[in-house]
Amino acid sequence: MPDPHTGSKIYWYNMSNASSLGKGVHTEETVRLDHDDQSKSDHDIKIVKRKTMDTTLAFMEEHDSEVPEITPEQERKLYHKLLRRVFVMVFLINLFMFMDKNAMGFSKLLGMWKDTNLKQKEYNNTNTLFYVGYLIGQFPGHLLFQTFNKRYFMAVTLTCWLILMFTQLAAKDYAGIATIRFFLGLTESSVTPCIEHTLGMFFDSKTQSVLNPILWLGAVSVGIPTGFIAYGISHVKGSIHPWKLYWIINGSLTFLLSIWVVLDYPTNPAEYKAFTIEERVHIIRKIKRQNRSSIEEKKIKKYQFIEAIKDPVTWLFSLYALTSMLANNMNFQQQVISLSLGVSRINSTLITVAQSCYSCAFFLLGSFLMTKFKSSLCYLAVIFNIPAILGGFLAVFLPWKNKIGILASCIIVHTDGFAYILALCWSQISAAGYTKRLTRTAMFMIGYGIGDIIAPQMWVTGPRYYAAWGVQLGIAWFGSSLILLTIRYILAKRNNERVKDLTYDSDGNVIMKRYEYLESGSDAESGKRETDVSNFDLTDFENKEFIYPL
């Protein structure tokens, strides 16, 4: 068998019925094989380059037959090891990224505004510019981490991230802060998609949907450690200004994390040597059986990009990200509202801690519900928008003198974060074909970036900010919920057309059909190999065995 990276061609055809692949499978030739007619000549057989197939194919061809099925006890131990070696790392990366984002929220409390003569409008602009950079970096970043080794990509990204964080210490005015925030957004733009796709390479879609809220628990809980850090720093008397000391602590912790990332960031299950060969085989088997799609593909496929763009679900997810992020600036404006209500700077940091504790409680509740209702992504997301709508109404209609009520309403709305996380995960696991999946994620993050560009500019007529609250109520929470329900309707309709053609084993798992392929130049009989549909990196439109999670 030739080296999998040589680009040798393979012929492939269905061993069972012709309908399983559907029409329009994109390969090097456009003629579709009639699987039931074995008299067809070679030019009617589809040709695919081996290098366009799943990166784990060669590894599984070499080792799959040698490894027995995993026992329940072995599976439990492997899952715990995956949590320790993969999940903990991406969790910490996400946590530290949000520590950086939260730093601007504490800037006024710790004296940055005073030292740099920053005004409310300029503060809003720095938040907007961060997401302009975030938006610009989406497609270039996605191309880089798909094409190159993810460990190298993440190492370079964290290095640039650290340099910019420490450079911010030298900022003396609005121009300096705005410039650095723009480049920080550009640098961080692909971190979230990269860690999400890393999770998708090591955990099946059902497990990923359960772990995703826990991953983002770091984002919502970051206010607890950062709030206490800010509270402690505000009492420090020294030559270093409190806001600079905060950035130094943040940057130092990120530096320690970057060392671990450089040494041990996971690439893909076939190559990650922290696991034994047997463990890697079990990881790949489970993902392919559950997801029925490829794990990783290094070649960018133009047709998958086009398919993603033409798929209305891609645009609906992007629209959801935009609308839901119109409420995202609450994380930055909450401290400003607290000060407007007469809360001291020191006590405002403690309100942030309280908000984070509240968000953590709801995220833990949501994660628990995901384990009980694994096929309810959409409905749970909509349900978690309801407290946000309630909090928005309270913020609008309570009298200004009711300070406790308004502060409470600003905290209540943060359940919407759980809805967003479910939607982010759903947007990825509802697409097959590696390039299509990355394209959809990029479009989702573009919507996210546009929403975050707009959001800060709504907070201009304080202290009640009625316009901002109105947009959040009508569009960010209610409107986005309607978008999710529309997506579910479309995907459920597609599933109904597919399930009748599937075959199940005694445990209720879908039995994937087997396919044969021929190495270029091989004899039609001696060169024949068997593999399943997941190795061909087909999109969800091409692979009729793919079932959309709901």
Task: Describe it.
- With 550 residues, the protein is mainly α.
- The protein folds into two domains: 76 residues, no CATH class; 425 residues, Up-down Bundle (Growth Hormone, Chain: A).
- Helices cover 62% and strands 4% of the residues.
- A four-stranded antiparallel sheet has the order 2-1-3-4, with no helix packed on it.
- A hairpin with an 8-residue loop joins strand 3 and strand 4.
- It is globular, with a radius of gyration of 25 Å.
- The two termini are 40 Å apart.
CATH superfamily of the largest domain: MFS general substrate transporter like domains
The CATH topology annotation of the largest domain reads as: Growth Hormone, Chain: A
Structural class: mainly alpha
Topology order in helix (H) and strand (E) letters = EEHHHHHHHHHHHHHHHHHHHHHHHEE
Per DSSP, what share of the residues sits in E-state strands of 2 or more residues?
A: under 5%
Distance between the termini: 40 Å
Biggest sheet architecture: 4 strands, antiparallel
Shape: globular
Number of folding domains?
Answer: 2
Tally of DSSP helical segments: 23
Model regions low in confidence, pLDDT < 50 over at least 5 residues = 1-46, 520-526
